[in-house]
Amino acid sequence: MVAANPGLKDYADRIEQLAVRLGLDFYPVDFEVVPNNFMMEIAVYGLPVRMPHWSFGVRYIHQLIRQGMGHSRIFEVMFPGDPCHAYLTEDNTVPENTLVVAHVLGHADFAKNNHLFARFMEMAGGHILENAAAHAHRIDAALEEYGQERVEAVLDAALALEPHIDTNGELHRLPYPAQPQDADAADEPDSFRQRFHNLPGEKRLRSEPQRPGRPQIPPRPEYDLLWFIANYAPELEGWERDIFLAVREESFYFYPVFACQIMNEGWASYWHARLLREADFLPHELYLSAIKAHSDVVRPFAADNQLALAVNPYHLGFSIWEDLIEKRGLEAARRICREEDDFGFIRNYLDRELADKLELFVYESHDDGGIRIADRDIHAIREAILAPKFNYGAPRVAASRMHVDGSLELVHDHQSDGRGLDISRAERVLEYIARVWRRPVSLHTIGVSGNPRVISSRK
Q1: For 145-150, which contacts have Cβ atoms below 8 Å and span 24 or more sequence positions?
Q2: Domain-located, residue 426
């Protein structure tokens, strides 16, 4: 615990008191200092205790290599909740961990007050650490009873679909209605709808009538694939359904962290800089070392490079918040903190002046390995930053039709997606799905030439 280092414990307590005086409103935070190898496990698994799967081991090796090459260093991991849980590595110096404490308090304030965090916290976040440990325990029991091969096949499919939830929907939802809706009857009282359905061509576009008592499944395109498979896969057993719902619950928990990364890291960086600056009780040497660590965190490029081809969320978020607070004041910044996610934050508050100051641009690469600046238009810059965040970073795919024989059709919404599919990856994911669906599965998309293309599982 932080208490194991009396000096750090004293600084942490006094920084927390200072944060309250400056108006931060945060959930209580449990701090713990842990060994570096445990910190890496937490970072790659995403939670202190989580379901076992080979993919996490692969991520661990990648992180180990990056850290060994000096390309990555983990100062802290914080899990929003009530209370929040923050892990600091024992390899950090006391000045670095002093900065980390201030940084975490900024995160805790953001998590308590941002509307997206609040919504998902209510659904999935309050006891996620305990719930994730319970998920892991049940999967361990399944491994004992059903064997590694069967359990791993289900985990492969569920984790491959981890981002495929409906972030506009609810974590806890009911199955589809057992009886079909009488659309014609529903339209009767509405004269405008009645006239609309009488327009030439409209009747042709309406859904074909279903046989009485058998509604179409799903009744509309279903983007929450984890929920749909858990509830409607023809032969899914109870323990398999539990795995899909466990992955889904954890995905709901992680979504606001993903969708607010730039805002959240920038807000925490702004507050750790301000708290250190106003913490007149810190020794001068400790303050200088902590500010040096701050500069390393929020710089736009890595090591000795003078050009960055990827956005550092700490640098970009910190720069926007500093600009906002200077121009609009802290109360306006607090309102923006409450109301926005990264999409609104970048589109509304990254302006042309700041983009020029930060030397932001859109680049393109060539077959010969060279790169060139493709665009400095502010709209192009914003959308390039946000493109990887659309739809939780995954292609927009929906379950469109479950046929009488149990076969499943998926549709890639390429029009709103705007980025196409990695066909080889889509084929692998489709095979994972077919293993648990246990009926033929097909995916309708658009090929490189713009022609319709259907990818089918081999099941």
Answers
A1: 145/239, 146/239
A2: yes
